[in-house]
């Protein structure tokens, strides 16, 4: 049982939770995720850890309300308990000196991107961050990202905030302007796919952090399997980050839709 | 606890046993037929995921069956038992009507007799070595059914004995994983007075007993009773804790843990790496069974979804394959098919499971092997291609080698496929602890007599050592490790 | 040095001397040495289905009661196959990272179904081309020649559909209608044909009265059979041809080039001498070209083939006919 210490609403669909989890806060590194279950009847779902305070013993999770499980979590308030929380899972981000890193975050993917951006900045890199979303109310953590970036560009599909356009347009502008040594892309699968195609064109090594469907999250079931470079890996133990240019994004997107019928029906029932 | 010949003889010569033997002549004993376990009707039972197929023997049935046992001077049945349970002793207690004593006898050796009585492959173990099988070519004494009877009786009687626990010695030990190996390890260590904590990665305790074996074979409440007992004795269970991730071994050592029993199991699923295997609707048996058994996905009020196929193919021939295909049937499959590349006789599953599956209308497609899967435009599997197999010369394990019959492919329409071709050892701890000696295939190497790994304070047992084996073997490992860890720790104390 | 570049495997090669698939091309260090010695391409050690079965046998025989659960071992050959493939793909990518010399993966096909997924993975790992080893020895009396041939063509079609990299095939000489088969193969879209696969030959030890394995390496005279067929076949089709067996010297290599081969594959000579054999052969070819005034291989390649010369000499099969014409 882990108590929610603080809740901050970013918008009517996105919330930040600070959760009491001392051991996870201590062991966790950027890139790690947790699996949680809101209640007895709940699903086990993965969420990347967006930040941690080892002294206070808390971790930060950012949730976007999309289906039953994320909605259940979204509805919790400070003082409520999450029934089960386990982590840190996955392989930590390989943070090292590369020179200039371009970090592209789509929607709620900016949350897991934040600790990575912070890590790369602290490692002495030049950090250019692009945070993108469909509209203004889905842009999150702008100030925090700005704090750890040499340059931050905000983009919205509808132009309601920042520059109008897709993240790939912003990325290409940067790439054409200066030498980018490495790229990291975190966001919806289709966003990562197109960002990856762009950086592949320019031969910029790119890591993508994948959001596959999971059940246990500990390497036990294979639900999260993904094809990278023609081989099958488990997102929960080999990832969640992989060499973006080798990821079969089409397969990933196909697999993400594996339970879409059941998910739709369940959400209708819930609401 | 010794099972040597002297001890067995002493026990056998006790008055109550000698008298019991005299009450009925052997000729009369052997004239009886083996008891038939009452079972739920097949058409009825396929409607329920959580109702046991085997209903259990009545006291009269159990006593009658126990009477068949000849109380052999040289009990070969014990030799067939991986942990050498004193079988004649508990069987004769049942004949004598002393059911609680029978249960107590079982618990001298086996930590979870209610489990083993249900899931042990007796037909390969004790019952295969029974005098009836060996010398008379008749049905053996139903040792498994009797074990279950005694354990169930004890549990339901309310007189479940909580064993004596020695005074606390203040030494902290940890078990990693909460499956049968750890549970039996914990049971022994707590009795010796150790401070025992069992760390479990999942949110439920019991390991494969909970997430793997379906309720129609092993009800969860039976496992829960055992877990309760352990907690009553003082064993601490910590859920949602992955040793090596949530905290490292070094962290735990700093917190005072002096020795570890690694029993993290063989939970890594194996796939066949054939084209189309990543389409939606193709699952590992681990995923399928975890969704249904652990997450209750078949029940509407639980959030986790599961695909309920109409035509379900399960690849494999072991107990996991049987569990998967019978679960699919219970979830409403019109056709639930086993696809196995060898013949029926060579399927490694428990004979009783295959028999129950047949009764439930499971189709068996033997000498067939999948080579490719096809899907619709959304990426959902809708067809599979299988190849017919012949059987060639036996391989080094004595099982005949499957040989492809070229040009024999044909397609089967399916909407759910469960791949149950085996599991591999969980890679987490071997990857976290670099000094740990691990085999080429990921199993932790231990000294067989002591279950000690290459790191002195680390012992290991169960599937993480064996690759994938039975519950009874895991439990035997847990007990062996406990005895040896105790010696190791006591010696360490003395040295300091 | 003269320009000894040529084209085979659907690739431009810097030398017509290719390191053939053998145990020596199964390790990264050896492969790099061969690349550095001037090999035009290197064919990696072939993956055999039988090899996987033998590894399984070995693995099973090492088992103790501690780790021999039948359910766990039931499909263990898949585990071994996966590991074998993983190591092979790792070999490909490791070697590709260290040399620009074309690396050709080699698969031995016994059962046709398995290998399309593997072929794709080989391509993903970075192999420049794929060589299919067609090893069917006609000793299965239940199979007709049509069965065997059909198998070849079905497998080729499947693999060609699965990958973009060039696919070549190495065949045995066991065909009663070799010309017709090769012609048909050349129409499938494969990038090259290599003649011929060598079979391990049994021999008899009369002292122990047992069957033993004959020497597996080729001897220098083994080149005559493939040479004859190079002469006959090369002119009959557009598909590039390469030859193997018994090629120990630059002289022999040149014989093949003159007869119409685009390249030669060598193994036994490397076993005897080491990778420097390739350097020696390259030099020998270059020296001869300089001496003859040839600037590139296409200038003399195939000038002695049957198509070019209409020489009946290639098809002399009758011993009597040959000796009949000569006086003793």
Question: Top keywords for this entry?
Answer:
heterotrimer, A: alpha/beta, seven-stranded antiparallel beta sheet, seven-stranded mixed beta sheet, 16 strands, 29% helix, 32% strand, globular, B: 496 residues, alpha/beta, five-stranded parallel beta sheet, 22 helices
Average pLDDT over all residues of chain B: 94
Helix content of chain A: 25-40%
Give the strand order, joined by hyphens, for the main sheet of chain A. Answer: 6-1-2-5-4-3-7
What gyration radius of chain B follows from the Cα positions, in whole Å? 24 Å
The structural class of chain A is alpha/beta
What is the overall shape of chain A? globular
The total count of strands of chain A amounts to: 16
What spatial order of strands do you see in the largest sheet of chain B? 3-2-1-4-16
Largest sheet of chain A: 7 strands, antiparallel
Largest sheet: number of strands, sense, barrel closure of chain B: 5 strands, parallel
Distance from N terminus to C terminus of chain B (CA atoms, Å) equals 29 Å
Main structural class of chain B: alpha/beta
Which oligomeric state applies? heterotrimer
Walk me through the structure.
- The complex is a heterotrimer of chains A (271), B (496) and C (328).
- Chain A has 271 residues and is of the alpha/beta class.
- Chain A has helices at 22-27, 68-74, 110-122, 142-147, 167-177, 189-201, 235-238, 249-256, 260-270; strands at 2-9, 14-20, 33-37, 45-53, 58-64, 81-82, 84-89, 100-106, 126-133, 151-156, 163-164, 182-186, 206-209, 225-228, 231-234, 241-243.
- The two termini of chain A are 26 Å apart.
- Chain B starts with a helix and ends with a helix.
- Chain B is globular and about 70 Å long.
- By secondary structure, chain B is α/β, with parallel strands linked by helices.
- In chain B, helix 18 links the parallel strand 7 (311-315) and strand 8.
- Chain C is built from 13 helices and 12 strands.
- Chain C has an 8-stranded parallel beta sheet with strand order 3-12-11-8-7-6-5-4. Chain C has a two-stranded antiparallel sheet with strand order 1-2.
- The chains are: A alpha/beta (271), B alpha/beta (496), C alpha/beta (328).
């Amino acid at each position: 049982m882990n108590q929610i210490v603080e809740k901050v609403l970013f918008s009517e669909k996105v919330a930040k939770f600070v959760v009491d989890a001392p051991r996870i806060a201590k062991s966790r590194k950027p890139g790690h995720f947790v699996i949680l279950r809101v209640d007895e009847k709940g699903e086990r779902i993965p969420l990347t850890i967006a930040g941690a305070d080892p002294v206070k013993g808390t971790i930060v999770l950012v949730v976007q309300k999309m289906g039953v499980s994320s909605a259940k979590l979204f509805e919790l308030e400070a003082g409520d308990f999450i029934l089960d929380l386990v982590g840190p899972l996955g392989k930590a981000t390989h943070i090292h000196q590369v020179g200039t890193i371009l970090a592209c975050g789509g929607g709620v993917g900016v949350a897991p991107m934040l600790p990575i951006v912070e890590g790369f900045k602290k490692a002495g890199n030049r950090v250019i961050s692009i945070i993108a979303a469909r509209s203004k109310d889905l842009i999150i953590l702008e100030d925090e990202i700005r704090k750890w970036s040499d340059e931050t560009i905000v983009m919205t599909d509808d132009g309601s905030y920042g520059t109008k356009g897709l993240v790939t347009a912003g990325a290409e502008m940067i790439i054409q302007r200066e030498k980018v040594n490495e790229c990291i892309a975190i966001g919806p699968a289709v966003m990562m796919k197109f960002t990856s195609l762009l950086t592949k064109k320019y031969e910029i090594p790119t890591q993508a952090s994948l959001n596959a469907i999971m059940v246990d999250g500990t390497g036990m079931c294979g639900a999260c399997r993904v094809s990278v470079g023609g081989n099958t890996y488990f997102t929960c133990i080999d990832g969640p980050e992989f060499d973006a240019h080798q990821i079969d994004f089409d397969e990933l997107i196909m697999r993400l839709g594996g339970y879409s019928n059941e998910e739709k029906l369940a959400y209708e029932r819930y609401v | 606890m010794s099972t040597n010949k002297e001890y067995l003889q002493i026990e056998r010569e006790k008055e109550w046993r000698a008298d019991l033997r005299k009450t009925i002549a052997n000729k009369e004993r052997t004239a009886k037929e083996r008891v038939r376990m009452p079972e739920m009707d097949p058409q009825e039972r396929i409607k329920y995921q959580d109702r046991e197929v085997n209903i259990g023997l009545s006291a009269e049935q159990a006593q009658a069956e126990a009477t068949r046992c000849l109380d052999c001077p040289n009990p070969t049945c014990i030799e067939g038992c991986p942990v050498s349970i004193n079988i004649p002793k508990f069987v004769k207690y049942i004949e004598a009507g002393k059911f609680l004593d029978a249960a107590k006898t079982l618990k001298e050796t086996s930590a979870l007799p209610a489990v083993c009585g249900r899931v042990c492959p007796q037909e390969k173990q004790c019952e295969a070595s029974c005098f009836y099988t060996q010398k008379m070519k008749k049905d053996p004494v139903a040792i498994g059914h009797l074990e279950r009877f005694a354990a169930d009786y004890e549990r339901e009687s309310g007189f479940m004995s909580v064993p004596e626990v020695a005074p606390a010695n203040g030494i902290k030990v940890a078990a990693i994983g909460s499956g049968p190996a750890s549970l039996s390890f914990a049971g022994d260590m707590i009795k010796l007075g150790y401070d025992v904590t069992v760390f479990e990665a999942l949110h439920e305790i019991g390991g494969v007993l909970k997430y793997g074996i379906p309720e129609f074979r092993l009800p969860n409440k039976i496992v829960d009773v055992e877990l309760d007992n352990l907690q009553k004795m003082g064993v601490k269970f910590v859920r949602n804790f992955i040793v090596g991730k949530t905290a490292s071994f070094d962290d735990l050592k700093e917190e005072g843990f002096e020795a570890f029993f690694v029993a993290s199991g063989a939970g890594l699923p194996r796939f066949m790496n054939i084209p189309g295997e990543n389409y939606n609707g193709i699952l590992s048996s681990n995923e399928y069974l975890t969704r249904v058994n652990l997450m209750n996905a078949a029940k509407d009020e639980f959030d986790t979804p599961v695909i309920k196929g109409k035509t379900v193919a399960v690849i494999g021939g072991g107990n996991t394959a049987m569990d998967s295909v019978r679960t699919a049937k219970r979830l409403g499959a019109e056709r639930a098919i086993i696809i196995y590349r060898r013949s029926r006789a060579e399927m490694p599953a428990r004979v009783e499971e295959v028999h129950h599956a047949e009764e439930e209308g499971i189709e068996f497609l033997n000498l067939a092997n999948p080579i490719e899967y096809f899907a619709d435009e959304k990426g959902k599997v809708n067809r599979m291609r299988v190849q017919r197999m012949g059987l060639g010369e036996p391989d080094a394990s004595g099982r005949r080698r499957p040989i492809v019959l070229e040009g024999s492919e044909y397609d089967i329409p399916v909407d759910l496929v469960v791949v149950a071709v085996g599991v591999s050892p969980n890679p987490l701890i071997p990857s976290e602890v670099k000094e740990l000696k691990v085999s080429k295939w990921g199993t932790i190497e231990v000294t067989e007599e002591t279950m000690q790994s290459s790191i002195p304070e680390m012992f290991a047992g169960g599937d993480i050592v064996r690759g994938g084996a039975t519950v009874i073997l895991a439990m035997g490992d847990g007990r062996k490790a406990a005895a040896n860890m105790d010696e190791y720790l006591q010696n360490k104390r003395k040295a300091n | 040095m003269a320009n000894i570049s040529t084209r085979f495997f659907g690739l431009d090669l810097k030398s017509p001397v290719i390191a053939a698939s053998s145990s020596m091309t199964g390790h990264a260090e050896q492969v790099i040495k061969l690349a550095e010695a001037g090999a035009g391409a290197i064919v990696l050690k072939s993956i055999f289905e039988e090899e996987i079965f033998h590894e399984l046998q070995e693995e099973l025989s090492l088992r103790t009661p501690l780790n021999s659960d039948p359910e766990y071992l039931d499909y263990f050959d898949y585990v071994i196959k996966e590991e074998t493939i993983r190591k092979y793909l790792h070999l490909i990518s490791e070697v590709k990272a260290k040399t620009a010399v074309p690396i050709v993966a080699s698969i031995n096909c016994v059962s046709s179904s398995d290998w399309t997924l593997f072929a794709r993975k080989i391509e993903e790992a970075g192999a420049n081309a794929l060589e299919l080893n067609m090893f069917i020895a006609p000793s299965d009396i239940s199979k007709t020649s049509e069965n065997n041939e059909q198998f070849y063509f079905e497998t080729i079609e499947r693999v060609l559909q699965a990958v973009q990299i060039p696919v070549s095939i190495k065949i045995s000489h066991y065909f009663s209608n070799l010309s017709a088969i090769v012609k048909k193969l050349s129409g499938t879209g494969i990038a090259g044909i290599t003649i011929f696969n060598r079979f391990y030959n049994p021999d008899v030890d009369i002292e122990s009265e047992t069957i033993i394995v004959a020497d597996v390496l080729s001897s220098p005279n083994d080149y005559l059979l493939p040479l004859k067929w190079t002469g006959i076949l090369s002119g009959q089709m557009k598909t590039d041809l390469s030859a193997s067996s018994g090629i120990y010297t630059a002289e022999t290599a040149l014989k093949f080039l003159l007869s119409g081969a685009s390249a030669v594959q060598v193994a036994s000579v490397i076993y005897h001498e080491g990778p420097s054999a390739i350097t020696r052969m390259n030099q020998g070819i270059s020296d001869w070209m300089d001496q003859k005034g040839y600037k590139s291989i296409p200038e003399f390649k195939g000038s002695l083939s049957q198509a070019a010369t209409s020489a009946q000499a290639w098809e002399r099969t009758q011993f009597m006919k040959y000796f009949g014409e000569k006086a003793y």
